[in-house]
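Dissemination and training. As part of the outreach component of the grant, students in the summer workshop were shown how a complex can be specified as a set of sequence lines and then modelled as a single object. The example used during the hands-on session is reproduced here so that future cohorts can follow it. Participants entered these lines:
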Amino acid sequence: MVPPNPGHAANPSLRRQLASLLVVRGSGHSRDGQRRYPRWELSNGELRRLLEQGVGGVILLGGSAEELRLRCAQLRQWAGQPLLLCADVEEGVGQRFEGASWLVPPLALGRLHGEDPERAEGLAERYGRCTGRQARRLGLNWVLGPVCDVNNNPANPVINVRAWGDTVPAASALAAAFLRGCQAEGVLACAKHFPGHGDTSTDSHLELPVIPHGWERLEAVELPPFQAAIAAGVASVMTAHLQLPALDAERPATLSEPVLTGLLRRRLGFTGLVVTDALVMESISAQHGPAQAAELAFLAGADLILMPADAEAALDGLERAVEAGRISPERLQASLERRQRALALCPAEPTPASLETLLAQLEQLVSPQDRALAAELLELSLETHGGGPLPMGPGVNLIRLDSQLNSPQLPARAPALLRPAAAGYGARLLDGLSPSPWSGDPDAPLALERLGEGPVLLQLLVRGNPFRGSAGGDEPWPAVLRQLLAARRLAGLAVYGSPYLWQSLRPLLPPHLPAAYSPGQMPEAQALVLQRLGLAASALEGGFTD
Amino acid sequence: MVPPNPGHAANPSLRRQLASLLVVRGSGHSRDGQRRYPRWELSNGELRRLLEQGVGGVILLGGSAEELRLRCAQLRQWAGQPLLLCADVEEGVGQRFEGASWLVPPLALGRLHGEDPERAEGLAERYGRCTGRQARRLGLNWVLGPVCDVNNNPANPVINVRAWGDTVPAASALAAAFLRGCQAEGVLACAKHFPGHGDTSTDSHLELPVIPHGWERLEAVELPPFQAAIAAGVASVMTAHLQLPALDAERPATLSEPVLTGLLRRRLGFTGLVVTDALVMESISAQHGPAQAAELAFLAGADLILMPADAEAALDGLERAVEAGRISPERLQASLERRQRALALCPAEPTPASLETLLAQLEQLVSPQDRALAAELLELSLETHGGGPLPMGPGVNLIRLDSQLNSPQLPARAPALLRPAAAGYGARLLDGLSPSPWSGDPDAPLALERLGEGPVLLQLLVRGNPFRGSAGGDEPWPAVLRQLLAARRLAGLAVYGSPYLWQSLRPLLPPHLPAAYSPGQMPEAQALVLQRLGLAASALEGGFTD
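and obtained this result:
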C-alpha cells in the first residue's frame, strides 16, 4: 500500500493542477534495485505517490525496449490520467533503450549538410520519423530533441556531437527536419537548449556556463535554429542553464523572464510548451532551493518543471506563489491549457489489451526501413585513411573508452573485441578507473611494457558527454601515435565518436596506415570500421538483424 | 515469414517426436542484437523455425525478469505446444535475470550445515521455494539445479561455490531440501552433474576431465547426493561430461550406457527425465559430431538432448538411428512418456491474458519473504576479522573482478564503488583485460606506483566460474597482502565469492585489520561487508527494496 499524500492539501484541486506541470525522473527498469542513477531516479514508492497526486510527466532512462513498454503502461496505470512520458533519445530510441534503433549522432548529418543539403535533410527527417515512431510504440509521447545548439566550439563537453550542426544552416535545417519527422509520427519534439548551448566549454551539469555574446551574435548564430524549429511547428522548447549577460545580467536563461517570455514567447512568437532543463542540475540547485527554483522558472515563463530536486518542495513553492498572488490564475491556466493542447496533439498510443498484441508490436518495433536508415547513416559518415589490412598478430588491441562498467558500446560480442582477437590481437581496455597506462614521459607517454608485445591496434571510443567535464580529448593521443610510429608498432587506428579527435590524429598518420573513423560507437559502427581495416566478421558477433 | 522446414521429412511425425526431445538455447532478451552469447544462443529466426518443427525445450540466459516473462510467452506462442523452458538459476532467478532474487551461492549453506544442519536444511528449502516460485511466475517450468556434486576439491574451476556442500552429508541433505522446495512450487528440479563433478580441477567446458576413483569411493562420496535427490523425488538428472574409467573405459558419462542406464536407471532406480549437459561443450563436440553425439547420448539412456551443436544435424542423427533400428520404438516411446509425465507434473503457469494482470504479477515477483531470505543468507554467511573503521582517504580502492564488461556485480551504484569513494578512496579496477598492475617482483608483485597514493582497500570479487579454466586463486594475492602490510598501506580487505581465497588470506592479516568475507558478490553483499568495515551507506546506492 502507498501512504496517503503527506503534503499540503489546503487547496487540493490547485495542488493537483500544479502537480500536472511537473515532470519527474524514473528509471526505465521496473525495480528500485535496477536503477542506474538512483541519485536522480525516484523509487517506485515515490513515483507512484507523486503520480497519484497528479504529477503529469515522467522522464525515463535505462532498460530495454521491452522494459520501457511495460514501464510506460505501469506509470499510466498508477497515474490514472494522461501523462507526458519523455526521454532524451536524441540518437534514436536505442541510445537509451536497448533493442530499439541506435543511430549515429546528429553531428554526422551536419557534416553531410555542407556537401548535400537535400540528402542530409531527407535523412534527418527519416531520423526523426524512426525515433518518433519507435518512441510512440514503446509508450512515450515526447522526445526531448532536437538539440538546436550550434556546436561551434569543439571543446564543448556537453553538446558536441549531439548537435545537428556546427554551422547555422546545418543546425537550423536539420533540427527542423528531425522534428517534422518526429511530430509526423504523433510524438512531441523539443527544441533545446534555448537560447543556445553550443558555444561553451563548461558543463552545465557541473557549473553555470556564461555566454558572453552580444545580441547581434546571438541573432546571427544561436537563435536561427530555434526560429527554424518554431517555424516548423515544434511543440516544446527546453531552456538552458546558461548565463547570458546580454539578455539578463542576473539570472540564468532557465529562470529569466527576459529570455523565456521577452525573447522566446514575445519576440520569437513561440506558443507551445516551455519546459525547463532539469532543475536538479548543479548550475541551478547550487543557487536556489527546489521551491524557489520552480517558482522562478514558472514566473520566467516555463510551463513545465523538469526534475525538481524535490518534487514536494517544488509543489509547495508553486502553491505558495499562487496563493500569494505572485502567480496569477490566468498564467497558471495558460500553462495548463498549453499542456492540454500538446497532449491532444500527441496522445499516447493505447496500451494493447492483450499480451499477444503487445508481443506482436514489440517484434515489429525495428522495421527494415529503420535498419536501412541506421546502415545508411553509418556508411555515409565513415571516414577512412590508408589501406591494406592490419598485419596478423600476436599484437595488442588497445581500447580507450569512457567506462567499462555497463558500457552498451562494448557488450561481450562487440566487434571491437572479437575481430581483433580473431587476428591475434589481445585486448587491453583502458578507462578512467584502470591502472595507469602512462609512462610519465610526455614524448613517449604510453608505458608500452605494461600492454604486451607486438603491433598495436589503437581504438578510441571517446566523445563529449554530459557529466564528463571534458570533450574527451584531454589525453595525449597525438603523442601516443608518434610514439607508436617511432617504435614501429602502430598497426592501425580506429576512432569512434569524436570528429575533433579524429581530425587531430589523422594528419599524423603515414599514408598507408590503415585507419578509420565513425561518429557512432555502437557495435555496428565497430563492424564497419574494422571491416575497412581488413578484419572480417566473427561468427560470435551474432549478427545485427532479428 | 519463416521459411518452410528445409530438413528431412521422410517421417514427419517421427521427426516431430524426436524434436520434442531437444532443448536448444536462446537468449532471455528479445532481439538478436542483444544476445550476450551469440555463439550458443540461436537467432530468433532459427529458434522460431525449430519450435515450429516441434523442438520441445529452450534453455534461457540473460535479460531482466520483465524480459524473461515476455520471452517465455513469445516462445510458447511460436511453439504452439507445451514447452520445457529452463535456466541455470542455481543461485536464485536473479543470478541470471535481473530484478529477481539473487541469493548467496549454495556452498554458503554447506558451511552452515556442519554447525546447524536443521537451520541449513530449512534455509535450503526456502531457497528452492524462492527460486521455483519466481521461475514459475516468469514463465519457466524447469530449474537446472540443484548441483549435487560434492565440492571436495578447492581448485575445482567449474563447480566450486555452486555446490551445496564440500562434505557428503551437507551436499546430500541440502540439495534434497532445495529440490523439495523448488518442486513444491510446481517447477521441475534437476540433480546435476551425474555421477559427480566435484573432484576435478579441469573445466569440462574446455576439456574432458577424468575422475580416477574406483567404485567404492564413488559410492562413498559422489553418489550419495544423487541418491538423496532421487529419494526426494527429483524430476530430472543432468549428466556430466566426465570420464570415469571405473565405470566406462571408453566413453564419458554423458554418452555411457553403463553410467546412465546401468547405474542411474537400474542400480539407483531413477525413473524421471535424464538430460545431457550441453552437447556443444568442447569435451563432447571435439570428439563427436552433433548427429553422433545425440545418438550416443540417447542410446546411453538420455531422454533429452541439451544444446546440440547443430539441432538439425542432431535430429538427422536420431531419425536415422530410429529408422535403422538402433533406437527401438519402445525406447523412443519411453522417453516421450517421461517428458509428458514431467510436463504434467509441472505445467507452465498460464500467460496472463491482460497486460494489467501481467504488470501486477511482475510487481509482486519478489515477496517480502524472498527479501528476508536473501538478507538472512547474507548475514549468516558473513565472516569478519579485526575491527575498527577504515582510515579516511585519500586512498586507493583496488578492485579485482572477473570482467568489467557487463558485470552485474558492479553497476554504477555498487556499494563497492560508492562507499569507499565517499571515504576518499579512488577506485582502480582490475580484470583480465586491464593494463598489467604487476611489478615483476614475486615478493612485491603490485606495481604500487601505477595505482595511486595512500592506504589501499583491497576488494577481491573472484570465484570459480565455468569457462574460466581456474578457480580464481591463481594471482599472487597472499604476496600482495604481505607487500601492502610491509609498506604499511593495507587499510582493509574485502573478499566476495571464493571461501578458499578468503581462507588463504585471513591468516596473513594482523589482528586489528578490518576485513570481511561474503560468498555473495551482489551489491547487497558489498553493502554488508563494507558496513562491517565502517563504511556507511551512500544515498546513491538507491536502496534495495521496491
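The mean pLDDT of chain B is 92. Students were then asked to discuss how this feature might be tested experimentally.
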